[in-house]
Fold each of these.
Amino acid sequence: MGGSTASRFAPGNGLNGPLPFQATIGDDMNKLFTPAPANYHPVIIDGETFSDGFPLTLAQKRIWSLEQIGNSTVFPLQVLTLRWSASVTLDQLQGALVKLADRHSALRTRFRRFAGGRIEQFALSGDTSPVETLGSDSNPLTSPEADEQRQAFVSRPFDLLNGVASRCQLIISQDGLESSIVLHPIVCDEAALAALQEDLVAFVDGRSLPILADDSLHRGAIEETWLETDDFASALTCWRELIGEEYNATVLPTRFSTSGYAGTRRRRAPFQLDPALWNDIKTYAGQHGQSAELLLSAAFAILLARYSGTYTLQYGLLLSNRASLEPICRTEQILPLNFELTSRASVLDVCQAIASSRTEGARNLVPYERLVQEMQSHEEREQEAIVKSLFEFRAPCAHSERVLHQRVKLAPRSDVELALIVSPNASGGLDAQFDYAEDLYEPAMIERAALHFSRILEQAVGRTGVRIKDIQLIGEDELRILSAPYDDDGANDDRPVHEHIAAHAARTPDKTAIIFADEVWSHGRLDQSANRLAHRLIKLGVGAEVSVAIAVKRSPEAIVGILATLKAGGAYIPVEPDHPTTRNHHILRDGGVKVILTHSWLLDRIPDGLDAIILELDRLDLSDEQDAAPDVRVHKDQLAYIMYTSGSTGLPKGVAVEHGPLTHHMQNTSRVYGMSEESRELPFLPFSSDGGHERWMNPLMEGGSIILPDHPLWTPEETLTVMRKHGANNASIPTTYLQQLAEWADLTDSAPPMRLYSFGGEGLAQQTFDLLSTALKSEWLINGYGPTETIMTPMVWKVRAGQKFEGTYAPIGRAVGNRRVYVLDPDLNPCPIGVTGELYIAGEGMARGYIGKPDTTADRFIPDPFAPDGGRLYRSGDLTRWREDGTVEFVGRVDHQVKLRGYRIELGEIEAALLQQDGVGEALVVLRDDEATKQKMLVAYVVPKQGLELDISAIHLALERALPAYMVPSAIVSLKSMPINPNSKLDRFALPAPTPMQRTIIEPETATEAEVLELWQQILNISPISVEDNFFSIGGNSLGAIRILSALRQRKPQDRTTIADLFNNPTVRSFAGIIEAGHDQSGSEVIVLRASGSRPMLYCFPGLLVSTREYVKLVDYLGADQPATGFICYSLSEQKQIGASVDEIIEGYVDYIRANSKGQPCYFLGWSWGGLLAYEAARRLGDEIDLRLITMVDVCDLGTEFAIGATPRFKQGERDQLHATVQDWLSRTAMRAEWDRLLGVMDADTYDQFLRFVGDEKDALPTDGPDISSREHTFWILIDNALIFRRHQLQPYDVPIHSWAADDSLNRGLNLIDWRRYSPRANPAEIISGTNHLHVIGSQAFHSRLAHRLKDAL
Amino acid sequence: MSAVEKLPESWSVVRDAEHRYSVWPDDKAMPVGWIKVPYSGTRDACLARIKELWVDPRPLGLRQAMA
């Protein structure tokens, strides 16, 4: 946006920009509402002359705007309450207050509003601050009375247009004499308040003070002038370089479920630091030549770094920006800091970094309101705040013996997401307070951050040279609780798994062990078969540390083979015969396999050239072997199995697991899962995953049984039937398949009663979990998690059905058995709850390491610094965080995080969102930056569920709703299946580049179609165009539409089609049809944005030059059920007449609404000046419609220049000169006729206002009309509208109104309308941050809140 | 995450009682149960050294039991 430095006549940037038309509107709109800064002209109203008035500073304008929209919480009232010693008398105090008001004009500052809304401040010399005195020495108030009176006094709002911006109260109570001074924040900030106290004390003491040059009222004008200088421009350049376009404001971790949008609710968390610590801080700071304040600031920076995990910090510091002898006024500034640290930085390094960043920033200090405006200038995308976290150190007030007690309230400004204020208190310690947006931050997290802030300080001053990474935020006790496994009192024995299973064969030999299709294997048969094979294996040389490949499909024989291998003392390696030969070859070779167990029909799948004995189980005669178990003793450290896992790069790695950890894991798991000899489990997990083995071993170890699926592709129906038929009570099923099962069970109500389902393998969304909960009718659900390296399922989340969780995925719970889990940062420091870190698993339950890879083993299995008696930690590569209850939540893969435009993006989160869309079976998101895409962009690949078709645009729309804008992929590509390389791994290189949609060009059939097509091609400068192409999707916009219409009018003077016709019929074919038929009957100003839907119609009223195209994103967001109609701005419609009134303009809208919604419920939306139209239409329609709500979006009142009664002031001779300029210009302009019409309706006063307006403009009057995109045309529209709205007076009307304001409009001090002045059912406006007047209508933050309000009003 | 580039320069090869090897940063207190093997350098250099040193993957207890 141009801001006040750009030309008032500046047109939009033509057809090239994304939103050219809107840019024009916004530019001029903002300028019209913002009085031209450099030329300031006091005004006379109603003949009454005021004393000189002064413009407001930007900071003051913002506060004024907030006050306007009824928001008094962002800047609280400034209150100074002092209790005086007995030596001070009432007279002394009263006298001192008079002197104080005399010295500081802030106490006497008044405000006035001119017709049209411009605000000035002024002060009268004789004025004082009103003083209210309560009680007397003879009749003092009681303490409660005094409290009550003071409370009422300090919280009462000001009416700034009536009286001065301060007031005083003196109370004589049983406690003595007390004074309270209350100032409006528009004239005073915290630091000024402290100065005010010093001056008051001095006057009470009878001291005289040095003379003060009070320039507080001039600061607005000084600022305006400075903003025009090169100094300002170069300061701004420094900020642009420092912050850049792709900044990332540092924050504490936000709640899991927000998309980052802060509502207005604030919450505070006060805490204290004791005097001993504060003394230590001061001492330490002194010893190292630092200020104590800087040390506190460093502690905040460290807190941000440790909590956010990022060491490139961008946050704000509140500068008091006050010199020693300054008048009372608002000087404080938010100073953005941006610097880079590493965790190796010492606390003193951090102090240094802050100090230099602060010095540099202070050198280039610009008003924060303006900085935000300049930085948030992107048209296309929603912008994040520059500062989201703010630190403020509030200096203590000077001590005086006269003052016994001072009531200090740490009332912070609350316009950032989170602020921490620290200030020394009377008891010698520090008062501190977090003030934060409740929607964003978990109160419990803030409480912990407060505790950790203290801990950082304690450790920082504990010894010299402490580095960020040395600071321990988590205490030992807390860590013990967080890392603890599931409660499990049972004792483990050391017998290996196969001996546990064999024991049941001895006790209950006939009991069923395995059901496999028609086969039923008893425990006895299983054990004897395994024993016989074990004897053979031993003869073949199998023993400790010798491996045997199990190359058979999932079957009882496979289990026999595994048990036989274990009984022989060997280690088994499952090999999936179906997997690619190259992969299997690698496994058999790498694993040093001695014997391969297989079936004769799978022989061709076994690679040639191996030095291994192949046993075909179906041809093996074991009749000579003994039934009894071989006498083999197994050492606890001996290998039990080797499981090959796909490495992220290259060939699979063999993970070697020993007997001791395995049997203990199995016994612990049995107890957590509640397994018994009654257990009958359906283990659906494949044998190529270690989880698949856990789930058959477990029931057999307990003397229970398993139902082994005879092929891997059972339909959900088959599976449920088998479970029912065989009386399964447990099932372990991969998450994706379980989802299908649940869908089927839900549909057919066919879920058998079950005790437990366990699942895992991927992230589980709440929606899926809910489905499992309701459809499967299971007593327990277990979400299992675990890398192969930590043995099967080292972590589980065991819950009753129906459990709710926040976050993207279901929690992965706690450790099982003799393990602990830690969430650690890269320095191996435990992360606080809610802070993302990498998951580490410790304890006995982990693998020996990787076969043949000692270096990889040493890399992933590291020393455990938390174990009291030695041990290792396994680094999982998964990002997680501890939840409030100490369970762990999965966040994503460490290597799955990418950075795009400064945002850290977790690809898994986008994939999870894709998987929640209808029909999506698989999803993959990649950050592409290659030849095909030309730039970095997120591309999503989706595979539909079997037999389904995907609606890509619907998915895209859904993602826009579910994710922040920067996470929405630029393209979504539908694939039949994901490309796989020979290792069964995803082949990323084979992913196709997103291609633009192939268009079919349909040629015109009629002469009119051909003519329209030619016009489109000419004006949009695109070729070829198909007659079925949508005007807007090929780059058409409002401006293009108007040009097409005017070109059409030139060719066919009789044609009556309107812009609405084009919008409602946006293809060449349909538009040509309308031309032939004569124009559409729906009316020339009405655009049907969405025709159908069961909810009440939403009527959208236009701002200046709004064509309704602007509402498309909003209507998309509101969804298919929300019908919407838009009205085109009057200036763009065909019937416009010069000098129409608001009443005349709404006529057409009112008729249309009456005809279509009479007696029906409906909503109105008014954006910008459209709010006035919506309000007036509502008033006119009255009870004829059932109006549920008017939503007002950044609705401003008219600017000053054309307000009725505003008489402009000219310098000597200036008026005549301007008149001559205008006349000369009129003689040259091609729009002479239009201007004459416009000037013709102006009376003498209005013409003077017009001259003033022209005179305030720096650029020459434009003569590039009458083209619709010209500066002159825009200027004409602007003046035309100013004339329309100047005569309009708002009348009270009782109607429900909800309003919003764009943050940027507050920064600009636009005259936003407080609708509460007109309707008792209006609310104070909510602020939408990160957007401006122009873009607010497309802002997702606004959409979500609008949707919410419409729903409430239903 | 650029965790690796933020790691300190100096690491040591360490070994536990079962003669399992790993690496540990020199600026962090040694974990209980581990001792330094006299070799230090970058993390990668230490891992390369372990490739040479750790020839028998079996824990010491098992090696002795099988001997």
Note: Chain B has two helices and three strands.
Amino acid sequence: MNGLVWARRRRTAARFWSQYRQNRAGVFGLVVLALFVLTALLAPVLTADNALSVTRPPGSPLQGPSADFLLGTDRSGRSMIDLIIWGSRVSLTVGFWATFISIAFGTLFGILAGHFGGWGSSLLMRVTDWFLVMPSLVLGVALAAVLGRSLTTIIVAIGVTSWPTTARLVRAQTLAVEARPYIERARALGGGHLHVMSNHVLPNVMPIVLAQTTLMVGSAILTESTFAFLGLGDPTTASWGATIQAARDVGAVSSRMWWYILPPGIAIVLVVLAFTLVGRAIEGVLNPKLRER
Amino acid sequence: MADSALPTAPVPQLAQSVRDRSGVRRLRYYGEKLGGSLVSLFAVILTSFFLFRIIPGDPVRTMTHGRPVSIEQQEQLRRDFGLDKSLAEQFWTYLTGVLRFDLGESFQYNRPVTDLIGDRIWPTVLLVGTSVIVSAALGLWLGVRGAWNHGSLGDRVNTGVALTLWSVPSFWLGLILIVIFASGLGWFPTSGMESTGVEGWERIPDVAHHMVLPLVTLVAVVYAQYLMIMRSSLLDEMGSDYIVTARAKGLRDVIVRRRHAVPNALLPTVTLIFVNLGFVVFGAVLVETIFSWPGLGQLFYSGLSVPDLPLVQGLFILFSAAVILMNLVADLLYPVLDPRVRP
């Protein structure tokens, strides 16, 4: 029995991958993502010990690109390349955790609202609507400003303000799944609420959640850079957004120090684009109607 | 003769009752939308109280953190904010204040928040309004073109550009534009809304000149979404039977597109434009900060770093209320735009 289940799952995964592979943009996104994840994991190996040190920086401040520092140095004399490498850690960490909070809440509330119905469900959806109509980024920024500067604050602010979209999506999917006859069969055989939700609804909702997750990590990373740029992040972490803010502070814009502004922005664009492309490719595999587009 | 008179009598009555019922339905539709907006507005006011009074614990300590403020001054501030009263009393003062458009006094400017908003609102309305109109026009036009020739090179390029711009942080794009076109080529001013000493009608081209770069930045980040939604909703319509029928009738391509497909695909996109206003407002915060545009976004930014809680709170309520109001307007307009939604 167990072997059969696993064989079926392997077959499904193989089919998924063979369809995914046909989407060239999706494969490109996956490669870019793998590179960034690898960079983030290997950051301590790729850079010297004093790479992030402000007191013992490897070079002199605000130098243009040279043989020693291919992308120049920042205001403390740290190599821009090293800053980008360490920044990938911050971005991916915030992206994953914020998305985790958002998806966990969204999926939980979505399934509960879809499964139980009644006034509890309408109340839950009403609350979701309140959140949807509020400008979530403004709310997030205000929340971060009130909570004080730290990476955790940013993660919480993004997570708490972005779950309603997922909740709506999951609720719709839950309603669609629960209308199918096999749910009725499960109930007739004595399956309780918990059994139906965790064994039947959840597995069917997961694919759409997966696509949503990928898209959301991208937008969470974009939001993190924005919050860091607005000065709401931890001042001591070298996030990409914070680096751009530092560049603006030292007047890199008027003195045209392009090597200070350009690289962190390009890194943000690449990561966010990669997540978006992968998310769209997954959506395409799950929903063949979208694939022709 | 008597037979023929019989059936005619009830007909006007029936028509009358149908009209009555549709009138009631319409009233109910508008009432529901209005009620929903009021509930949302109340939720915003409630959230805001929770966010700026309850979460910080002691708002005065949050605001004066790391500043040379004596104990006596802090006590004075607590009294000014009414923090010595009970929570219920505080909420009542706050609620009645908001309803009378009294948003308290800014901590860093020492002026009523409402006055500050009054000074700064028009530049933001100008920038946000123009950018919404331009990005909606651009996004819809490119989206229609893309869907109609989908799969073509132009469509693929357009979608690629849109997806890339969607991934670009707006503040970074703004900085790059300043580096290239303002401090580099010197075509546009680096910041502000007006040059000093320009009077009368001359001000219009001057403001327009200052607005080019902020506008381009804002449009670049916003239009992509409109394009993608318009494109996919038109693609949905293109598979429909009535489009095939219209083509089979021998209608020209332009007519099929303009009269049949686009009107039906428009509604989801229009909905999105209004729902997304919050996103545009946030974009304005960043763009105004980068370009020193003297609007509400810049004011919001200046309140964040303190944090100037009354100011941030007032602007949060204002931004949310604006988005809710615009969505209400959209809800009331849909029946005019689309007969299928007509109650």
Note: Chain A touches chain B through 48 residues (CB under 8 Å).
Amino acid sequence: MEQYDVIVIGAGHAGVEAALAAARLGGKVLLTTVTLDNVAFMPCNPSVGGPAKGHLVREIDALGGQMGLSADEACIQMRMHNTGKGYAVHALRAQADKPFYHNLMKKIVENQENLDLKQLMIDEVIVEKNEVKGVKAETGEVFAAPCVILATGTYLRGKIVYGEVNYDSGPNGTRAPQKLSASLLHIGVKLMRFKTGTPARIDARTLDYSKMEPQYGDAQVYNFSFLNKVKTREQVPCYLTYTNPTTHKIIRDNLQRSGMFNGYVEGVGPRYCPSIEAKIVRFADKDRHQLFLEPEGLDTNEVYVQGMSSSLPADIQIEFMHTIPGLEKCQMMRAGYAIDYDCLDPLQLKASLEHKQISGLFSAGQSNGTSGYEEAAAQGLMAGINAMRKLQGKQAIVIGRSQGYIGVLIDDLVTKGTHEPYRMMTSRAEYRLLLRQDNADLRLTPLGQEIGLVNSERWSSFTAKRDLLERTLFSLGQTYVAPTEENQKKLAELGTSAIRSKISLLELLKRQQISYAKAAQAFGLPELPAVVAEQVEIQAKYDGYILKQRQEVAKALKLENKLLPESIDYRSIKELSTEAAEKLATVRPVSLGQASRISGVSPADISVLMIYLEAKRRKEEQ
Amino acid sequence: MEDTISAIATALGLGAVGIIRISGPQAVDIGCRAFRALGSKKLGVQEDHRLLYGHIVDNAGQVIDEVLTVYMAAPHSYTGEDVVEIQCHGGLQAMEEILKLTYQLGARAAEPGEFTKRAFLNGRVDLAQAEAVMGVIEARSKQALQGALAQQRGALSRAISVMRTQLKDLVVRLEATIDYPEEDIEEVTYNSACEVIAQSLQRVEQLLSTAHTGKIVREGLRTVLVGRPNVGKSSLLNRLLQEERAIVSAIPGTTRDVIQEQILIDGIPLLLADTAGIRTTGDHIEQIGVARSRETMEQAQLVVAVLDGSMTLQDEDLEILRALKGRESVVIVNKGDLHLQVDLQALKAEFGENRVLVLSAKTAAGIETFIQWLKTYVYAQGSAAEGGVLVQNARHAHLLQDAKISLDDALLAAHNHLPYDCIEIDLRGALDQLGAITGETVSEEIINDIFARFCLGK
């Protein structure tokens, strides 16, 4: 029997990050997958990033994870969204070459030291006395490990439905584990059933792009990774087209044949990516919906129809697509479908992503009820890190809500749970202005260094940037502009008002009209790398708001630092409201801060807990 | 938790000196900014536990009152936190002004039992009191669910809901365009944002303007009965108490941590100076005499002057009537069942037609009119608000004040066309603060609304 430190079940976006992180931290790792042909496979849209998701990718990169670097290489179009809406919500989104991304990740995983990649159907997680011992495959092989990370995505008892067609399957016709769910239930894991879906893929040769609106990538070359390795990039356009009342009529006339309505789909689907039939039912007054046609890669004719996820029968999917401008003669290569799958109720997990009752069992990604490649990768990275730290006897790494979107994501999951596939959104982050995608490295690379995932190349480029930034901010704060005639003239040329008394350059940069580049030219400042100049501008212009958010963080931290002992019997505290006592007993928060975020726990309940804790402390002292 | 709180810490009628207590990390800072000591001394560690003489000066540099101030450094204070106590002589008005100044300088109104709660958490009061404090918190939330208070709360919640709905709608529209940049959602214009924010701001200000009345309803109207001996003050009080609608209750002080008596007459809460004394000794106030009455009048919000209608005005009566000048007052001409010797017309000419009431404590004639008068007096100030909504709770008033600041900032940001992410900080701040009043959490609501309103996603 082979002995590993960490076994990861599933080699999707969560599994790959988990396995790579654990192996890079020195663990002996087994990564299993039902098919080697689906390593880091993108079963849905061929893209990475977007609002909040792009932030997650940058955070993964800042910590030393893989997704950003691979997405940069696989990228065939990159755009920075929301540039007019403020730095906090700038969002990088890439179209990815799907087969390329899979091949690249597979190559990286295959060549990672300490990592074995195997095609295996895992039937069982072996647990003794609430401690993980290993896994058993359908072949009868047993692999031993003190830590097992579930990263089963949408495969677990997966069932594909479109129209009357329905069969047990993972995404794209792969085998779906049938026995693992029972094993998980047997060891005491609580499961939920969720649903998601994907649209049809159509043949690029059969599309009339002249009837659609092209969407090009940005001229400026962006990268997710702070290592910024890709300098030039071949980009291809996407195309925008719309549904119309004829499309909607066909869909409406056939609703009863949709998997969503014919009773074949059991799981709870996400509101944020509704199927086209759900959109038409819920937003009946909208006479058109936009569709983006996204290429699946440079070496394939498959085109993804974003906005048209459906579980209608294949013939209906073809029929309504033919009503859409540019798609009149389209050939469908794969039908869209809905997929039902088992996942864990994340309320069973600690913030380290380890199961509360089963020592050594971790879970990450869609198996925790999330959706999206980026959300999965972020959790995978943290699960891999924390599994290794557990083995090394180190304290788990828990990223705070004020430190990163990764922290918001995991805290939401383990504190509030979720009733539908959870998608990251910038509006979920209360400290959004601090958690910008531009400063993910400043926020998290020192932590990545401490964890041990930041290599010397990343660390030296990071420290160089950080030091230059700090020196620049210091010297700008110390350099004053006097209200001389010459300076006033310069200011007028910069399009800004005159100054009354001397003012530091940092103060001057707070003015909306003045960029670092302009100020540098006018006042003879050194030229800076673009990322540093941008950082200087953001920190100057957002200073007041950043301060406001920092004060909020400081206030919240006081509650975060008040820890709740694991032994509390909430139901015995009669001053708590009944609802609060029940919720607290279920979630078992680690701190008053976490308790305060549970819905149904009021500020009065928090006061009661504070007094209870103090009373308890004093009783113990006596 | 560890913000700085302040409140009047003395009960009415317990002497002429009033104490304002400020507790929390900002106490010294607030104290230093409000207090100018005579000489070169300054509040701070070097003057720990020493009484300093000086003045309280408002933001404009005006002297509010002559005071003694003491700083008690943590942990050697009542609450175990840094505490500054201001002892002032200038009566209720000055105390209220000083209190308001402490709010402006960053303190917030203390909640019921909050000084004691902090004292407990910091180990300053003993274990036995722990459950009592938890009881207060529990009782407060139960009380809030009952009777007239709940009704008022419901009205306030509705008023706030209207505002939140508008603000949330704006936030949802902004968030949807942020989280779904590629969807065809109508962009929000700065003008429309300014309009919504300005409307909400106006509503918050309206509600805030009722906070004073709300405070009376919450804490009781600080009332004092004055009059020379034997005009019938205690009979009047007893008559009021005989009314079936009168409830006398020992309630924990709302801005102070002492037990105080509140008399609820037909829903009008009165805090009567020394009432316990009047009722037990029968004629306690009678013994205090005019000199003491004056001191007590300094601290009252409403002075009820009682005259004996069956006699012509005595020198003492005239002296009392003179002392009413510039105060909120009502003149009661008692013994209205007897032949009136008092010149009513002259009194009405001097104090106003509806500030002079004739009644008989003995026969109860005219008592109803007096009760109606009190009601009108208390609620008149609040009637300007929409639907008669009153902000009664100190915490609510404070949250509204915070919401006002957030909305001011948001309006300025939107006016200057700052990016969405900046405007959103204050908009969501305001939503959070308003939501804390109604007990609604913002972030889930916004996300729910985004999906309910917009058709988004693949």
Note: Chain A has a mean pLDDT of 94.
